[in-house]
Amino acid sequence: MSKPIVMLSLAIVLFSTSLFAASPRINYLLYCSGCHRPAGEGNPPNVPTLHGELGRMMSIEQMRGYLARVPGSAHAPITNAELAEVLNWILEEFSANTLPENFKKLSVEEVTEARSQILADPNKYRANYWKAYDFSDIEK
Question: What is the CATH number of the domain that holds 62?
Answer without folding.
Answer: 1.10.760.10
